[in-house]
What does this fold into?
Amino acid sequence: MIEITDAITLAENEIEERFIRSPGPGGQNVNKVATAVQLRFHAAHSPNVPKDVFARLARLAGSRMTKDGVIVLTANRFRSQERNRQDARERLIALIRDAATPPKPRRKTRPPPASRRARLDSKRRLGALKKLRRPARPEDT
It folds into this structure.
């Protein structure tokens, strides 16, 4: 079991890992050993991910989520297969944790009367200044 939050835990069989050849660091080893990890998590079909968390997860994952609701993460930062595997899992956990925290509700606020007055006064001052820049009309003299 992988614990994400107190309420969300994932079973090991919900995560699918495939090892692929890595374009990252590794020298000659990179051509022989599949060190990169492609982690797939079926978030849409997971019984442990609530609907509201899934909606936020889809927005946060962006292009990393397929149309079927599968999150695909590729980890190839490290030279060893085990460290890449650990990195991919940590990134998945962080992504789900971010989605699990509900957004803070926005409280409507109104600008105070003093700032409203200051804004209107500044508009009046700028309007008067622009009026002075205009060429004099014959009927004004």
User: Anything to note?
Assistant: The longest helix spans residues 113-133. Strands lie at 2-3, 9-10, 15-20, 36-42, 70-75.
